[in-house]
Description:
By secondary structure, the chain is mostly helical. It has one domain. It is about 50% helix and about 5% strand. The protein contains three helices and two strands, in the order H-E-E-H-H. The chain has a two-stranded antiparallel sheet with strand order 1-2. A hairpin with a 2-residue loop joins strand 1 (about 35) and strand 2 (about 40). Helix 2 crosses helix 3. The termini are far apart.
Amino acid sequence: MICAKRRDDASARGRAFIASLPMHRLLTETDGPFTNVDGRPAEPRDVEVAINAIAKILDKPVSAISKTIRANLKTVLDQTRN
């Protein structure tokens, strides 16, 4: 798990870890309400911060990262339903 305390602020070790992950294993979460974003408890909508940071780290469009994460989530949910 990688924690970015500020927008696009991930450690060098965290960035290397993200870059090493296979795209088909990539998922995100906000850790809300246990973390803060802009001085308020994190909410599901704040996952966009993580998606933007991942896109920057991987040098890929945000839309491609979002699409991949949605597909990965669908795969996980489909597996849990079977």
